Amino acid sequence: RVPDPMPDAIRESADLLDLPNTLQQIHFPDTLDLLKDAQQRLAFDELFLLQLGVLAQKRDWQSAPGLPVSAPDEWLQALLASLPFPLTGAQTRALNDLRADLASGRPMNRLIQGDVGSGKTVVAAIALALAARAGLQGALLAPTSILADQHHRTLTALLAPAGLQPEEIRLLLGATPNSQKAEIRAGLASGEVKLVIGTHALLEAPVEFANLGLAVIDEQHRFGVAQRAALRGKGSNPHLLVMTATPIPRSLALTLYGDLDLTVIDEMPPGRQPITTRVLRQVERQRAFAFIRAQVTAGRQAFIIYPLVEESEKIEARAAVDEYAILQKNIFPDLKLGLLHGRMSGDEKDTAMSAFRAGEIQVLVSTSVVEVGVDVPNATVLLVEGANRFGLSQLHQFRGRVGRGAHKSYCLLISDASGSAPDPRLVAMEETSDGFVLAERDLQQRGPGDFLGVRQSGFADLRMAKLTDVRLIEKARREAAALFARDPDLTQPEHRALAARLEQQWMQGQADIS
After folding, report:
1. Residue 214, strand partner residues
2. How far is CA 71 from CA 78, 87, 135, 191, 328, in A?
3. How far apart (Å, rounded) are the C-alpha atoms in residues 325 and 330?
4. Which of 205, 272, 363, 461 is deepest in the core (most CB within 10 A)?
5. What is the dihedral of CA 205, 207, 212, 217, to 10 degrees?
6. Using an 8 Å Cβ cutoff, are 363 and 332 in contact?
7. What residues pair up with 413 in beta bridges, in sequence order?
8. For residue 88, which of 217, 271, 250 has the smallest C-alpha distance?
9. What gap in Å lies between CA 390 and CA 307, rounded to an integer?
10. How much is the CA Rg of the chain, to the nearest whole Å?
11. Which residues pair with 76 in a beta bridge?
12. Are 425 and 392 in contact (CB under 8 A)?
């Protein structure tokens, strides 16, 4: 009696059980093979609906014309010559993708994926310069005030040769004083401010643009589809560029970012130091402290990362606030230590990071708030306590905080797990610095929800589908694309039940994250 919304043609093409049989076999399987077939059908349905949703979203975004943006080659060459370093081949390819998108007359909708330190920000800066030259405003959304502040400094320097003055590039944070907020908002509404860099404060209702032409979102996995749409809604179908340093396995990229075109920056700029990674036993902690002291004595700086802010009765893990006091009193009484964690105010975090960046703090004790984007070239040692409590992708992000300058750098990992056998996940960190390899392992071991750290539209509803099943994902994507090409609005009689099911799932997914 259960109606099957899946059209017969797709069921046959994808070799799927019908829904009544599927429900019978999933509860009371006649054979193990039929149980697997039933699981496969339900998993396919989830992925297929997700793909239809992202394809519809992409079509909706690209149905209105975009603002064509282009510049003469001579102008671009002069801007590239002003950079402090030449672009890598991968950066040049990414820039070519962006230029083609911007000039196409359709709104750009692109994800740039590049490992920590691969140089995504420079490529985004050139795209923002192109937009500014065309008389359009730009916005860059970052997940933390620390990263937004860093982007503001970087872009102000990089875009000066393109003719953007410091007063035309503004920083808007939740902690920005109200008088300054009002001034920046007025500048955005009048068009005097050409580029704004900020956190979630950019998404608030009072922020209006005269002519937003390019929206850039950094660390895409921290923001859901709803935030993407909110930023996009600030302009008249602006171009959208999203960036992530979290390497995303191909299966996940196809599923999660099916509405985006993908560019991978898979090459490191010359001069990036390889980082030596070592897993230490708990009894070797004093060795780690001695090594940090030696590096600081040589003029370098260090991070020490803890999994918690404060001690918890429920979780036996070291906590940053308590350990900071012990380290300052007993281990490094003669060194300047700083503390950074998520419960500090924006101003307190900025003060701590500025002091560390300026060299006034020699050892920064922190929680995972330093995971994203913090750039201190003089920092050469990163010690992670309770490293087993973090995912591989997160540890890889931590590791990217060092090795950003001219000096040899080190990542030290200490597990707080009992037992003498080394943690195979941490051993993987020793074996490879390839973020994509680590991301695949992370996805297999932890599942997509933990891997992403954020609930994405339609994503929380995946109960049967495994994102490690690349073949099923590609089959679902292929069938969804073929159906979309034939009947994008699902108006044909045989597709109406599917249209109703899609609307139900997609609306539920949007409600989950808005």
Report:
1. 138, 239
2. 11, 18, 12, 21, 54
3. 8
4. 363
5. -80
6. yes
7. 279, 384
8. 271
9. 8
10. 25
11. none
12. yes
CA dist list (Å): 234 to 164, 209, 284, 488: 22, 7, 53, 27
Contact status, residue 215 vs residue 43, Cβ threshold 8 Å: no
CA distance 466 to 210: 44
Spatial CA neighbour of 50 closest among 510, 513, 514, 424: 510
Give, as one character, the DSSP assignment of residue 200: G
Query: What secondary structure letter does DSSP report for 17?
Result: -
Predicted confidence (pLDDT) per residue in 63-91, tens digit: 888 889 999 999 999 999 999 889 999 99
3-state secondary structure 68-98: CCCCCHHHHHHHHHHCCCCCCHHHHHHHHHH
pLDDT tens for each residue of 433-454: 888 788 778 777 766 555 444 4
pTM greater than 0.90: no
Contact status, residue 53 vs residue 506, Cβ threshold 8 Å: yes
**Amino acid type, 365:** V
- pLDDT, tens only, 353-388: 889 999 999 999 999 887 665 789 999 999 999 999
| Contact call for residues 435 and 116 (beta carbons, < 8 A) | yes
- For residues 51 and 480, the answer to whether their CB atoms sit within 8 Å is yes
CA 35-36-37 angle, 5° bins: 90
Q: What are phi and psi of 169, to 5 degrees?
A: -120, 110
**Amino acid symbol at 497:** A
Comparing C-alpha atoms, which of 347, 338, 392 is closest to residue 367?
338
Q: Are strands 137-141 and 212-217 parallel, antiparallel or unpaired?
A: parallel
| Joined tokens for residue 191 | 């068009």
Nearest to 448 by CA among 3, 47, 81: 47
User: Cα separation of 246 and 469, whole Å?
Assistant: 20
Placement of tokens 């795209």 in the chain: 127
279: phi then psi, degrees, rounded to nearest 5: -95, 125
Q: How far apart are CA 476 and CA 192, in angstroms?
A: 47
Nearest one of 362, 367, 303 to 341, comparing CA atoms: 367
Burial class (CB in 10 A: 0-12, 13-18, 19+), 153: middle
Residue 492 token pair: 């044909």
